[in-house]
Amino acid sequence: MTTQLPPGIQLETVDDRIMTLNVGPQHPGSGHMRLIIKVDGDYIVSCDPDPGYVHRGEEKMAEYRNYIQNIPHLERPVIHDSCNILYPYCLAVEDLLGIEVPERAKYIRVIASELNRCVYTLYWLAIYGIFLGHSTMFMWPAGDRELFIDLLEAMSGARVTHAYLVPGGVRNDLPANFEERCLRQVDYFEKRIKEYQAIFYQNPVLRQRTEGTGILSRMDAIRLGTTGSVLRASGVDFDLRKKEPYDVYENLDFETQVLKEGDSYARSLIPYLEMFESCRIIKDALRKMPKSGSVRTKLKPNPKGGNDEAYRRVESGRGSLGFHIISNNRPEPYRVKISVGSFRNLICIPYLLKGEKLGNMPSVYWSLNYWPVEADR
Amino acid sequence: MSTAGGIIRALNSGVKHLAVKRFTLRYPEQKLKFVGDGFQFDPQTGVGIAGLKGRHILFHDKCTGCQLCSVACEGIAEAIGMVKVKETWKHNKKAIMPQIDYGKCVFCGLCVDACPFYALYMTNDYELSSFTKSALIYTPGQLAVKPNISQDVEIKIGKRGATHG
Ligand code: SF4
Ligand code: SF4
C-alpha cells in the first residue's frame, strides 16, 4: 500500500550516485545565498542558485519616501559601491524633475564613483584571494582600499555609505588640497597594484586553479544577458561609460578592457585592469575639472515629479545598474525598479558549474562579480 | 614562464615586503585626522562644507524648534525626537529641541541639510559606543557639548610604502 501524498507534493527521485550539497546560506564562501549543488563524486552535475536571503524591500521602501529621503537607504544594497548605485538614481530623478547639473558637480561625481569602483573592486579582490586560500591577497587589497576610503572620507565625510551624490549635484564641494592628496595617493596606488601581478595574477598556483575553468563563450555571455566584467571577459566590448556616456565620461580619456578567454582567470583579471583605467579617469577628471563653481543645483523643498517616468543606467563595479522611476505628481515616486548587474550575472552559475570539479566552485562563483545583497535588493 | 620560476617570483614579491613599513593604523593609540571640524551646511547657498559626518552638535542659541530636522529624519531613521528643554529662548517659544538616538542614526547628515537656521552641524566625534541603549540617546544638553578629541594621523607616502603617521 502506498501512502497518499497531499496534492502538489512530489517526492524527489533518489539517485544512488548523486548527492545534494547545500552551500550556504551561512557558508562563508557563499555570502548570504545558497547554491544547491548536486555532485557525482567530485563532479558537479547541476547547480541551482537560490538567492533572496537578504531581500530588504528597497523598491517598496522607496515608494514611501521623498526623492531626498530615499538617498540613504538606496545605497545600502552595495555599501562599498554606494556612489555608483546612487548615480543612476540621481540621473533618473534629474530627468524627472528637469534639473540641470553644474559642470563641476559632474566631474566630482565621476571622481567619486571611480574612487568607489576601486574600493569595491579591491574588496571583491580581497575576498577572491581568500576564496582561493591566498591570505596575502586578502590583506593587500584590504589595506590598499584604505587609500581610497581615505579620499572618499575627505570628500564626503563617511568611510562607507557616503550619501554624497544627490539629484542636482553633490552634497558638498571638495575640501582644500584634495586634488594634491588625491593625485599623491592614486599615483602611489598605481605603483602598488603592479605588485599584485607577481604574487597573484602571475602566480602559477592561481593560474592553474582558474585558467580554463568555467568558460563562458561569447555567444553564451550575450544570450544569458550577462553584464559588466563577465561580459567583457568573454570578448564583448560593452561598457556603458563608452557606449552610453553619462555626465562627462565622453570627455575623459580611458579604454575598455576586453579579454577573449571567458574563463575564471579572465573574469578576475578584468576588474584588476579596470582599476588602472579608473586611476586614469580620476587623474584626467582632476585635470579637466573646472576649478571653481557651483556643485549643487538648489532643489525646491519636497520636489515633485510630473506624470512621467525615467530610466537611466550606469556602469557600476558589477555591470550595468539601472533605475526605472515612475512618478505621479507626488513628492514620492510611484514605483522604483532597480535593475542590478549581480542578479543578471547569477544566471550563468548553472551553466558554468555543470561538469566542473567541486573544488572549482568558489573560483567560478566569485569570479562572476556577484554581490548577494545587491542582487536581492 | 616556468612554474617554479613563477612561484619564486611570487615568494620574492612577498619577501620584499619585510622591508616595507607597516600600513596598519594602530587605532586606539593613533587616530585619523579628518578634514575640518565636521560636516556643515550653508542653507543660503544650498551646499555643504566638507567634513566628517560624526556626532551632531546643536547650537541652543540658534535652534528655533522648527522641527525640520526631525521631519527630514522621519523617512530615514526616525532618530530625531523633539523634546522639551528647560531654558526658554526668545527665538524658541515652544522650548523644544531635537534629541538624537544614535542607536538609530545612520550618519547621513540630511538633518543638517534640512536645518535652515545654522543650528545643527556634525562633528568629528565618532566614538559613541556605550553599554546601554539609553546612553545612546543624546539629549539637547549633551548635543550642545563640543567634543574634545585629538586626531592627528594622516596617510604618508614615502620611499618604503605608505604608512599611517
Ligand atoms: S544623520 Fe541622518 S539618520 Fe542621523 S539624525 Fe540626521 S537625518 Fe537622522
Ligand atoms: S536644529 Fe534646526 S531644523 Fe532642527 S529644530 Fe532646531 S532650528 Fe529647526
Q: Mind explaining what this structure looks like?
A:
The complex is a heterodimer of chains A (377) and B (165). Helices cover 45% and strands 14% of the residues of chain A. Chain A is an alpha+beta fold and 377 residues long. Chain A has a domain of 242 residues: Cytochrome-c3 Hydrogenase, chain B, CATH 1.10.645. Chain A starts with 17 loop residues before the first strand and ends with a helix. Chain B is 18% helix and 20% strand. In chain B, the strands form four sheets. In chain B, strands 4-5-7 form a three-stranded antiparallel β-sheet. The longest helix of chain B is centred in the N-terminal third of the chain and has 13 residues. Chain B is elongated and about 80 Å long. Classes of the chains: A alpha+beta (377), B alpha+beta (165). At the A-B interface, helix 2, helix 5, helix 6 and helix 7 of A face helix 1 and strand 2 of B. One iron/sulfur cluster binds next to helix 2 and helix 3 of chain B.
Fourth-level CATH superfamily of the domain at 58-299 in chain A: Cytochrome-c3 Hydrogenase, chain B
Q: Largest sheet of chain B, order of strands side by side?
A: 4-5-7
What top-tier CATH class of chain B fits best? Alpha Beta
Question: Which word captures the global form of chain A?
Answer: globular
Per DSSP, the total helix count of chain A is 15
**DSSP E strands of chain B, number:** 9
The rough form of chain B would be described as elongated
What is the level-2 CATH architecture name of chain B?
A: 2-Layer Sandwich
Distinctive features:
heterodimer; A: about 375 residues; alpha+beta; Cytochrome-c3 Hydrogenase, chain B; three-stranded antiparallel beta sheet; globular; B: about 160 residues; Alpha-Beta Plaits; two-stranded antiparallel ribbon; about 20% helix; binds iron/sulfur cluster
